[in-house]
Amino acid sequence: MEGNQSHFPKKSSSFSSTRDEKHREIDRNLSLGSIKLEQGREKKEKHGEDTIKEEGDEEAAAKQEGTRNGEEAEASFATISEDIDKFISVLTIDDGQDQSGEPPEIPESTIEKFVALAEKEIVKYEAGDAKWSSDRDDLSLLDAIDRISKLASAMTRFSSESKYNQAMNRSGSLLHHSMCFLEDEFYSLLQDPRAKQDAGSLSLKSKRQSSFSRLQESERSVPPSSESSSGECSPAYPPETVERLHGIADAMISAGYHIECCQVFAVARRNAFEAGLPNLGFEKVSIDDVVKMAWESLESEIATWIRAFRHIVTAAFTVERHLCEAVFDGHHAVSDRLFRGFVRGATTQLLTFAEAVAMTKRSAEKLFKVIDIYETLRDVTPAVDVLLPDQAEQDEHSIIADPKEEISSVRCRLGEMAVAIFRDLESSIKADNSKIPVPGGAVHPLTRYVMNYLKYACEYKNTLEQVFKEHKHSEKTTSHDEDGKVARQGGGGGTDLNNSGNRDNSCDHNPFAAQLMQALKLLHSNLMSKSRLYKDQALCNIFLMNNGRYAAKKVKGSPEIHQLLGETWYRRRSSELRQYHKNYQRETWSRVLACLRDDGLQVKGSVAKPVLKERFKSFNAMMEEIHKTQSTWVVSDEQLQSELRVSVSAVVVPAYRSFLGRFSQYLDPGRQTEKYIKFGPEDLENMIDELFDGNPSATASKRRP
After folding, report:
1. What tens digit of pLDDT does each residue of 347-373 get?
2. Which is the CATH superfamily of the domain at 602-689?
3. Around Cβ 255, how many Cβ atoms within 10 Å?
4. Are 354 and 373 in contact (CB under 8 A)?
């Protein structure tokens, strides 16, 4: 696009004259205009301007004289403009050839006067002595400049005619001067969107060298306005400013100066965009800064970037498109090209940050922010498609990639990063090979980490499913081998009900669900290995129960995970937990209940007191040991803790109460009863209620029956 070129080309060789030569021409033109006006004043003075006789009225007389001279100049300018229009029409009809084949005679004096007056008019605006006129169309500056352009263009056809050379040089020089002025004015209006009706004076306040004379400079910097609305990239232009910008753009394009016009507009809008980014809370940072940034800081920057990017695409781009269409109304190709260039530059600048995030070192905690950026790019794509419909022909001169392709490319890299981070969870699980058992058989930190991570990840279920489907080929590696390893490692303290043979078939069609299942298998395998670190098999089952219940509860509490794993997975996990529960009761309480059986107590029809006493002693010792040990065990899930206590009480207390009822009478009242019957049924209930509290200081309550 022309707006991105480094230098402003000159329009023709006639503009390459030195500044001194140009100024001499301007001075000569102005002197011609002055002579014309002086002659008019002399005539007026000879016809009775001496009527102002009173002393002290010189100032009023001067004002009156100036007004009349101005009226005469305007009338003269209007008359000469009509003559120029007639001459232009003659030049353009049948290529300006009369019946004899000769080009028309050039009215040199008329052109000289027109050039002088037009030059003087432009100088007045440049100096700030005149303001844009909206109520005198016949004398408006843009009309005069349009007439200059048409005159120069019409005479170009007769460049071989020597008699046109002087007029061509004069009109060309004037056109160059007027274009310099319009470019300055265009720049000034774009620079300050608060400009009102007195914009004609802005060119003096913010004067800078025209681009025609600064071919060595690659670009100009348009300082932002000091006042801007919070949350906006740049202040809005008032309607009168937009209208004036349109008039200038139309004049410059009609005169063939579309390159210069587009360059000024493109650079001004780009700089206004960059200056307005801080209003959205976003500061430009380099790729190196992003890569080296601490995660806490980068996390905050990502949140700010997301808000800024969404606002720019959904709001600021729409405003920019309307501005381009309004300023370049009637020149759709120009406005479309400028808008596309603006969007290309803005998105490329903003996407640099997102691309830098994708280049940072992978870590588990980055997954969610990476997905946030991915979703942002995905969600704005329809808006970008509407703003930038596909073109039949791409701009071959653009060095910046198409915004839609850039967004898609960065989104793809972020998707790959998200898949890789999620797959890294497998490595984290495998790497946790600590040989120190968790005290009390509590929930292992690995279980908490993995399940919470999966729960939060599944809050992005739809996005992760999309990402994994898009990148299923890149992430399909050794899943089948891993399934075999997990199946082989799953023996020991329980049955692995999560092996590949029992997998929900829906996972085969959902790469993310399959990856989720794979992570759970690895977690299960790791926990099975850790359960073998406990020498007490009852505690081993408590550990498996704690971790299994924690995982199942997380799944049940997350509709997303539950939907991915399916009801079958949950039922199998529940069945597995029931098996751990049975194993615990068998390992702990089967020996206790054996003391309360009738077998072996009667010899030849009578109760053997020594055996009965030994049974009570064994029961008491076992209960004290179980209470002492298992009160230090931890079951943090209140429901599971209650279920365990209730199930134990339901088996042990009734059996003990029945045993007492049948055999306590065979002990002598007094010392024997006190010695062998230490606990009543209520005492047992209290002891059982103190199990799994993780309280090593708990002591048994002793009460006589």
Report:
1. 999 999 999 999 999 999 999 999 999
2. Exocyst complex component Exo70 (1.20.1280.170)
3. 23
4. yes
